[in-house]
Amino acid sequence: MITSKVKSCINWENLITLFAITIPLGRGLFNSAFILLIGYWIYRVYKGGIVFGKSEIIFLIIVSSYYLYSIVSLLYTDNIEYGLDKIYSQSYILLFPLFFLSFKKEMGEKTYLKAFKGFLLSLTLVSVLSIGKQLYGVLLGKYGLEALTQNNISTSVVDNYFLGLSLLISFCVITYTYIKLFKPHIKLFGLNALETIVISILTITLVLLNSRNLIFLSAFSICVLFFAKSVLIKRPFFFIKIFFAMTAAICINYWANPYFGGKMKEVVNYSQENSKDKYWGGMRQSIWDCTVKVIKTDPVIGVGVGDQKDQLELCYKVYMHNRLLVTDNNFNAHNIFLQVFLEIGILGVMMFLLSFAYMIRAAILSNNMYYVIFVGVFILAGLTESYFERNLTMVFFSFYGCLSFFSKSNLGRP
């Protein structure tokens, strides 16, 4: 009897919900959950319940084509060891589409919402524990207030890079806003008070993480959603209220939060101090400048997945960007498109864009706003960060891209 109950709990929906829960909890846990997914997939293949048609095979080839081409780039890369490491860490790009295709008939909005709820609660738990631990240290006098910012928070309990954690939180807040505005019948936790507490904690955490780009992206996306809703209900004041509320919140954060204010001053670049090594904004200019220079050496096929880091570091040395040569720091291209261009050239970028275009078209035809929101958030956030270079955000992209796409999209239509 116990065995039958255990078997009934082991299904695709529960396993991907478990995986969603483990994403914010660290690499060890989500890798363990991923092994369970692999084992379940192998078991279902053995039982003969997985069959791919022509449309599924075409889909798999298109969405993973740029990853497959990255593997081919090992043929002309020199640093094979680094290249193999990147290929291994990015293997989710191929495996998650394979898994979700295998169980597409068991997917739906119900499955998406169940996984999203688990993800929300897990992210909230990590946020509470992280802030609580750092706040306790501040109250005891062990730390200064800087302990409540950026990596000091994101790595205090789980070793998550602050920009990656900010991306996860931003996505959750924006998706939750969409659900409340356009699907008001959906009650994620049953109690409105619990939903308010969860979103409030995540919002506070996002502010403390001080990612200016993701704070602005969240505010902008929320305003866009409210604008769309105000057009549908023909109540312009509905949008005007949230616009002024978001503007006021950002202004208050600028004046009251010296860390956020300091990062904003970096963008403004006061006193006409244009040294590229003085401000982080200038450092990005140096990074992008070197990235473009390296791209020009192999614009068609790229330098190869293994040589991307070495070629960038060589450029930093040649042009004496000394702050980009900090020990144990890997300053990547800080843009997902430039990173792909650097690795596998214009051919890879075309494959990368094709994979998005193919899935976006299918999502639009299926009226799947979950995927459209996910892609919009990831692409806009990725204009200033190379999220494929970090394990947390790579897993998030691969998993949630498939989860949101297969929650509604019909492969037979594209």
What does this structure look like?
- It is built from 19 helices and no strands.
- The chain has helices at residues 2-9, 12-22, 27-46, 54-63, 65-72, 80-89, 92-102, 109-139, 150-154, 162-182, 192-209, 212-233, 236-256, 258-268, 280-297, 308-318, 336-365, 369-381, 391-406.
- Helix 15 packs across helix 17 (336-365).
- It starts with a helix and ends in an 8-residue tail after the last helix.
- It folds into 2 domains: 52-106 and 281-413, no CATH class; 124-256, no CATH class.
- The chain is mainly alpha-helical and 414 residues long.
- Helix content is 71%, strand content 0%.
Compile the SSE list and pairings.
Layout: H1 2-9, H2 12-22, H3 27-46, H4 54-63, H5 65-72, H6 80-89, H7 92-102, H8 109-139, H9 150-154, H10 162-182, H11 192-209, H12 212-233, H13 236-256, H14 258-268, H15 280-297, H16 308-318, H17 336-365, H18 369-381, H19 391-406
Q: Find the structural class using helix and strand composition.
A: mainly alpha
Q: From N to C, what is the helix and strand string?
A: HHHHHHHHHHHHHHHHHHH
Shape: globular
Q: Which spans have pLDDT < 50 for at least 5 consecutive residues?
A: 270-281
Figure out the total of helices: 19
GO molecular function: ligase activity
Domain O-antigen ligase-related: 198-353
InterPro entries: O-antigen_ligase-rel_domated, WaaL-like
Protein name: O-antigen ligase
